[in-house]
């Protein structure tokens, strides 16, 4: 059982809403929290509230004129295309600043709880908006909450923070904000930028001068499933975290790597995703003295994927994993029918065997996933004194 675990939630977090038909529908986090509550997962956590991030907190990574531009859009609802607001991905809406600042405030609340020792782990499933840049909204993201939290940790005296991003899309905003900072190790496992937004995240992106090897990118081929994804994860993430020895582990848990996700092309199951959550939990204890901040991220299959995946994440953080065979509660299935007129899944599993073979058991140069693994290891491992060969 983990020590105190803080789950950050405020019903106002669903106000981060780009409108009808937008993929990032806030009902996905509403259904996640309802499922976690109905299964009793939240009984093992301390519930924590949040307040919006202040301008000074946002300015840890964002330009002041950008924050003012978001506020202007927030007041008028009029687009500001120069700052990426008013596009199909990031529609302008009245209240956008307040909504995005609250999401960031929730991740900051998680960071404070962990850094101050009030909780060992903290989770904000509404967070994970990893594409926002210093002066531009991008990819459904207005303010970059994980980057703000990492910058806040550094401002409090943290000397080494590791960020692991398992979203199907490259964690480009977080990487960009710390590309020249050797105190921050960013690791992103994502679908190849050759086939998916944002078009970055090649293994050759390894960090700026003075921070070489602190940006790590595993660009996986479209069609990669549980076995290949988990093989790649274990071939890259554990050795680098062990070598870097972070004081805090921050993870972005986008679940759009699932086979049913409408916006991407990886083929993971909920079972593979929960296996990754368990691995990250273990690595937080092994390498970061248990200090673990987990945020949500992408995930656009609103009923069959996001609520189950992130309920497994919260349960893992609490230290009481949910048996995959557990039935979903009737009360939750009724809520799904009421809110979306859809039929909810009956159990917490996709029925998959999420097993994998370690890369040390043999490298296959004809396999696209193995080639992706070795491209990353060859690009980054020597900077850390690690042998790239399996």
Automatic annotation (TrEMBL):
Pathway membership: Ketone degradation; acetoin degradation
One of the Pfam families matching this protein, by short name: Hist_deacetyl
Organism, as annotated: Sphaerimonospora cavernae
Lineage: Bacteria, Bacillati, Actinomycetota, Actinomycetes, Streptosporangiales
Domain of life: Bacteria
Domain Histone deacetylase: 22-315
Entry keywords, A to Z: Acetoin catabolism
Protein name according to UniProt: Acetoin utilization protein AcuC
Family: Belongs to the histone deacetylase family.
């Amino acid at each position: 059982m983990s020590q105190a675990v803080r789950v950050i939630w405020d019903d106002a977090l669903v106000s981060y809403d780009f409108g009808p038909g937008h993929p990032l529908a806030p009902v996905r986090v509403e259904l996640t929290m309802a499922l976690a509550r109905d299964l009793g997962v939240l009984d093992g956590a301390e519930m924590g509230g949040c307040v919006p991030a202040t301008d000074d907190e946002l300015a840890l990574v964002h330009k002041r004129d950008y924050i003012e531009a978001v506020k202007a859009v927030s007041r008028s609802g009029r687009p500001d295309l120069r700052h990426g607001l008013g596009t199909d991905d990031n529609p302008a809406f009245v209240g956008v600043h307040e909504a995005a600042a609250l999401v960031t405030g929730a991740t900051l609340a998680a960071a404070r709880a962990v850094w101050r020792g009030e909780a060992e782990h903290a989770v904000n499933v509404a967070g994970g908006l990893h594409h926002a840049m210093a002066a531009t909204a991008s990819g459904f993201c207005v303010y970059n909450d994980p980057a703000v939290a990492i910058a806040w940790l550094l401002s409090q005296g943290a000397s080494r923070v590791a960020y692991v991003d398992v979203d199907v899309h490259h964690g480009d905003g977080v990487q960009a904000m710390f590309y020249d900072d050797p105190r921050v190790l960013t690791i992103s496992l994502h679908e190849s930028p050759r086939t998916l937004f944002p078009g970055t995240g090649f293994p050759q992106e390894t960090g700026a001068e003075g921070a070489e090897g602190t940006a790590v990118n595993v660009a996986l081929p479209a069609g990669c499933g549980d076995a290949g994804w988990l093989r790649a994860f274990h071939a890259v993430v554990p050795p680098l975290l062990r070598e870097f020895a972070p004081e805090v582990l921050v993870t972005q848990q986008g679940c759009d790597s699932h086979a049913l996700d409408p916006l991407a092309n990886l083929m993971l199951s909920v079972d593979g995703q929960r296996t990754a959550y368990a691995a990250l939990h273990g690595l937080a204890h092994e390498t970061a003295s248990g200090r673990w901040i987990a945020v949500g991220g992408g995930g656009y299959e609103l009923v069959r994927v996001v609520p189950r995946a992130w309920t497994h994440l919260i349960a893992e953080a609490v230290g009481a994993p949910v048996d995959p065979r557990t039935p979903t509660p009737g009360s939750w299935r009724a809520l799904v029918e009421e809110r979306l007129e859809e039929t909810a899944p009956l159990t917490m599993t996709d029925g998959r065997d999420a097993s994998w073979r370690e890369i040390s058991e043999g490298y296959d140069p004809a396999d696209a996933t193995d080639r992706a693994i070795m491209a990353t290891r060859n690009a980054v491992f020597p900077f850390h004194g690690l042998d790239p060969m399996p």
